[in-house]
Design brief:
Layout lengths: L1 E2 L5 E5 L4 H10 L6 E5 L5 H13 L2 E5 L2 E5 L7 E2 L1 H6 L7 H8 L1 E5 L12 H9 L3 E5 L2 E5 L7 E3 L5 H11 L5 E5 L5 H12 L3 E3 L5 E5 L8 E3 L4 H13 L3 E5 L7 H10 L2 E5 L2 E5 L10 E2 L11 H8 L5 E5 L10 H6 L3 E5 L2 E5 L8 E3 L3 H13 L3 E5 L2 H6 L3 H7 L3 E2 L25
Parallel strand pairs: 2-15, 3-14, 6-7, 10-11, 18-19, 22-23
Antiparallel strand pairs: 1-23, 1-24, 3-5, 4-5, 7-9, 8-9, 11-13, 12-13, 15-17, 16-17, 19-21, 20-21
Helix pairs in contact: 1-2, 1-7, 4-6, 5-6, 6-7, 8-10, 8-12, 10-12
The structure holds uridine-diphosphate-N-acetylglucosamine (UD1).
Length: 434
C-alpha cells in the first residue's frame, strides 16, 4: 500500500544481482566440496534455488549475504516440476549436473507471464556437446559420458543458454566455442567464478567465448556483482518523485545505455566509482524513444520501470520490446492509474505528462510489479498493489529500502491475491510477510 507524493532522497545500498547469484549457486554443483558466495541477495528466487540444490543433496547455509554450498552429498539429478514452474532459472542446473554426473532430469518449464520462453538453444547446444537429450512425461532427460567440446553458434544471444552451455563445457573434453554468446555482466561474473574453480575460459563479455575443458573443478569463493536492475529501479524512483537518490554498490558501466537514456529525458546523473546518483524535476522531462536489446543494449528488465518515467515526461515516446513478447502485460494496470499508453505488437507509445491517480492494481510479473510500485510513488492518493510475491522474488527488502528514502509504503497482509480478501489494515504487516 503506497501513498504517493513523497520525494525520495538519500543513499541506498544495491544488493547482489539476482541473475548472477542464481547461476553461481548452480555452478557450485560442478565441484565437490564447499563453495562460498558473498553478497547473495535474500530474495525468494534465491530461496527457491537453495531449495533446489538442497533437494539434489547439497547442504547450504545462508546468513548476512554469505552462502556456503557443500555439494559432497549431491545424489539426485532431478529438478522437480514444483520448483521449475516456480522459477525458470531452475533449468540452469542442467549444464552443471550433466557435466559432472553425466545425467540431469529437469521438468520442462511451463508457460510464463513473459510469453513462451523456450529452451531449444539449451538443448540443441547440449546435443552438440555430445549429450543424449530426450523428453518424456514433461521432463527433459539429458545423459552423457564425458561431454565433447564443439563449436556452438546460438541463433540468439540467450543469457540462460550461454550460461548452461558454459557450465557444461568447462568439464568437457577439448575446446568449446560459444558463438553469438550473450555478453551480460552476469555472464562475466559466472565466468570469473568458474575460472576461480579452475576452468579455462576466454572471451567472457564478448560474443565469442572459448572454453578449454578440464577434468575436474575445485570449490571456490566469490562475491556477486551488484544488481544493475535494482539500481536502475531506485534511480528511477528518485527521478520520478523529483527527489535525489544515490545507489551504492553497482558498476555504472553496467548501466551505460540506461543512464544515457535518463540524461536524454532530462534527469541529472552523476557517476562516482561504484555509486550513481540521479535527480531532476519531472516538469522538465521530455519524451525519449528506446528499444530493448541483449546487453549492451537497453535491458528488458528495466523496460517497465522506464515506461513509468516516460509517462511523467512531456511528449510521446516509442518503446520497442525486442527480447520478450508479452512484456507489455502490465500496461493495462498502468493505464488504470491514469497513464496514456497504447500497445501495438512489440511497440508501445507512451503519451507522457498525465497525472496518475491511485487505484488497486495487480503485479503480472517481477519487473512490472516494481514498475507499478514506482507508479504508486507518484500517483495521487493511495495505490494498492496486489500479488506482490512477484516483487519479492527479485528485490531484497524493497519496501524497507523505499521507506529509507522517504517513501510512504507499507507491506500489508499476504502477498498472494487469493488471500488478499483477508487483508490486514494498513500499517500491519503479517508475520508471513516479514
Ligand atoms: C535472463 C534473465 C531475465 C532477462 C533475460 C534477458 C535470469 C534468471 N533471467 O532470462 O531477467 O530478462 O535474461 O536479458 O537471468 N529463447 C529461445 N530459446 C531458448 C532460450 C531463449 O527462444 O532456448 C528466447 C526467449 O524466449 C526470449 C529470448 O530468447 O525471447 C531471451 O531469452 P534469454 O536471454 O534466454 O533469457 P533468460 O536467460 O530466460
Amino acid at each position: 500500500m503506497i501513498r504517493g507524493g513523497a520525494r525520495l532522497s538519500g543513499q541506498v545500498a544495491v544488493s547482489g544481482a539476482k541473475n548472477s547469484a542464481l547461476k553461481l549457486m548452480a555452478a557450485a554443483l560442478l565441484a565437490p566440496g564447499v563453495s562460498i558466495l558473498h553478497n547473495v541477495p535474500d530474495i525468494q528466487d534465491v530461496r527457491t534455488m537453495r531449495e533446489l540444490v538442497e533437494h539434489l543433496g547439497a547442504r547450504v547455509t545462508f546468513s548476512d549475504g554469505t552462502m556456503t554450498i557443500d555439494t559432497v552429498g549431491v545424489q539426485s539429478h532431478v529438478a522437480p516440476y514444483e520448483l521449475v514452474q516456480r522459477m525458470r532459472a531452475s533449468i540452469q542446473i542442467m549444464g552443471p549436473l550433466v557435466a559432472r554426473f553425466g545425467h540431469a532430469r529437469v521438468a520442462m518449464p511451463g508457460g510464463c507471464n513473459l510469453g513462451p520462453r523456450k529452451i531449444d538453444f539449451h538443448l540443441s547446444g547440449l546435443r552438440q556437446l555430445g549429450a543424449d537429450v530426450r523428453s518424456d512425461h514433461g521432463f527433459v532427460e539429458v545423459r552423457a559420458g564425458r561431454l565433447r567440446g564443439s563449436t556452438i553458434v546460438l541463433d540468439y544471444p540467450s543469457v540462460g543458454a550461454t550460461e548452461n552451455l558454459l557450465m557444461a563445457a568447462v568439464l568437457a573434453e577439448g575446446e568449446t566455442v560459444v558463438d553469438n554468446a550473450a555478453r551480460e555482466p552476469e555472464i562475466v561474473d559466472l565466468c570469473k567464478f568458474l575460472v576461480s574453480m579452475g576452468a579455462i575460459i576466454e572471451g567472457a563479455g564478448t560474443s565469442e567465448i572459448t572454453v578449454r575443458g578440464v577434468l575436474a573443478l575445485q570449490p571456490a569463493e566469490h562475491t556477486v556483482i551488484g544488481d544493475r536492475i535494482e539500481a536502475g529501479t531506485f534511480l528511477i524512483a528518485g527521478a520520478i518523485t523529483g527527489g535525489d537518490v544515490e545507489v551504492d554498490g553497482v558498476s555504472p558501466h553496467h548501466l551505460d545505455i540506461f543512464l544515457s537514456k535518463l540524461r536524454a529525458i532530462g534527469v541529472q546523473v552523476q557517476e562516482n566509482g561504484r555509486r550513481v546518483r540521479a535527480w531532476g524535476d519531472p516538469a522538465y522531462y521530455s519524451a525519449t524513444d528506446f528499444a530493448t536489446l541483449p546487453y549492451p543494449g537497453f535491458a528488458t528488465d528495466l523496460q517497465a520501470p522506464m515506461i513509468v518515467l516516460l509517462s511523467m515526461a512531456q511528449g510521446s515516446s516509442i518503446v520497442t520490446e525486442n527480447v520478450f513478447v508479452n512484456r507489455f502485460g502490465f500496461v493495462d494496470e498502468l493505464v488504470r492509474l491514469g497513464a496514456d499508453i497504447k500497445v501495438s505488437g512489440h511497440h508501445a507509445v507512451v503519451n507522457g505528462g498525465r497525472a496518475l491517480t491511485g487505484a488497486t492494481v495487480r503485479c503480472p510479473d517481477l519487473r512490472a510489479g516494481a514498475a507499478l510500485v514506482l507508479a504508486g510513488l507518484v500517483a495521487q492518493g493511495y495505490t494498492e498493489i496486489r500479488d506482490t510475491f512477484h516483487i519479492h522474488r527479485g528485490y531484497e527488502r524493497f519496501d524497507a529500502k523505499l521507506r529509507s528514502l522517504g517513501a510512504d509504503v507499507e507491506r500489508v497482509g499476504p502477498s498472494h491475491s487469493h488471500n488478499s480478501g483477508a487483508r490486514a489494515p494498513l500499517g500491519i504487516a503479517s508475520d508471513a510477510e516479514r
